[in-house]
Amino acid sequence: MAAKRLFDESTNDQDRPEEKRMRTTPSISTVIREAVMVKSFQSLCANLEPLLRRVVQEEVERGVTRASCTARNTRTVLYRSPSMRIKAPEESSFQLMFSKKLSLPLFTGSKIEDEDNKPLQILLVDTSGRKNVPMMAHPLPIKVELVILDGDFPPEDRDDWTAEEFENNIVHERAGKRPLLAGDVMITMRDGVAPVGEIEITDNSSWIRSRNFRIGARVVGETSQGRRIKEAKTERFSVRDHRGELYKKHYPPALDDEVWRLVKIGKEGAFHKKLAAASITTVQDFLKLWVINPIELRRILGGGMSDKIWEGTIKHALTCMMGNKRYLHRGPHWTIVLNPICQVLGAEINGQKYSAHDLSGMPKAYLDQLVGDAYQKWATLEEVDVLHTEWALLQNDLTAAIESHHEIIQPSLQYTDLNVGFAEMGPPSTNNVHVEFNGWIPSPTCLPMAVGNHHVYNTSDLSSDDDSGSVAYFDRR
Fold it and tell me: Do residues 218 and 145 make contact, with C-beta atoms less than 8 angstroms apart?
């Protein structure tokens, strides 16, 4: 018994230290096994995640489908029940519309106006008939938002589009840029009219695919009777950087515009420098020399100006407004009336009065000499405003016409025999007329009326606008 008890005690003594060691210090194998288990669990979670996502997505889609079917059935019941029917928004014949086209070209930061250089205006029109009828008696104010649209909207210039298509074609500013359309972009329409305040486009249009914008207008919020009012859009246009505005051409040009405002004549370019060297600085200077001697003008511009460029520049220059000013060039026995570009509108020689249509019967060489002298002495000519002299002209009193312009002039018109012809009268007196042409020969006549290599000289072809002050100075009856 003693031996057995001794064996048991020795056995117990051997087991206890091992148990104690296992509780205090885990073995390396245990640590590795636990780490492997943790990694396996994480891997398991990673593998289960896509599966769980797919299961959740399928369940959500199934629930949405069931909800849609329930809603559809509910709408069907409501539609079939007259007492519970809900009406969807209806299309209407109302549409927003810009009253006039834009003033082009447009530059970044410049004020946007219509073709009459007035603020834009948006109208509410009824398109149900053949013509767009303005709706001037809309009962409630309407909030209208102005946006920038892609220039290619709508495709193929369709006249119909949905509100969603309009929304999808709105162009927003580039990242880090200011809002693309700045200014009064939210306006209120009252009585069918919405005046637009000051707006401007802050970025050029070169960065979008179409390279063009449109300005659009849409109704914000609900409209009366829940009907949609179709959106408005302008014509497509490009927007250039504001630095290009300093060099833009004028349409039409003004007489006192610098000559580089004409097409094909660039600022500080070769043509501009050649004209400046010849003291041709304004559009008026350009046209006066073209009237007097187009060959000399062409020579100044040089061989770099082709026939096509020449015709385009002259055509653009001739669109300028001549205004109401007329210029009188006097001599002892003659007076001629010129418009601002040195075209003859009338003449009085030896007491005989000639309108623009009668000038073709006068000796061209003599008339050319008078006009050439007027061109050389342009700064000394008597200037008359047609509007201020209308009454005096109707009275056929040339002297009174000049005095009404606050210039008291005593014309020394000592008429000879009225029956004396031009051949007998001879050239004007050298005591009063000094003709210098700076080395160039006057053109066969002073009125070239066609653009091109060959000029057609026909004084009877003067327009009625240019004739407005011709006969009036001498014989308006």
Answer: yes
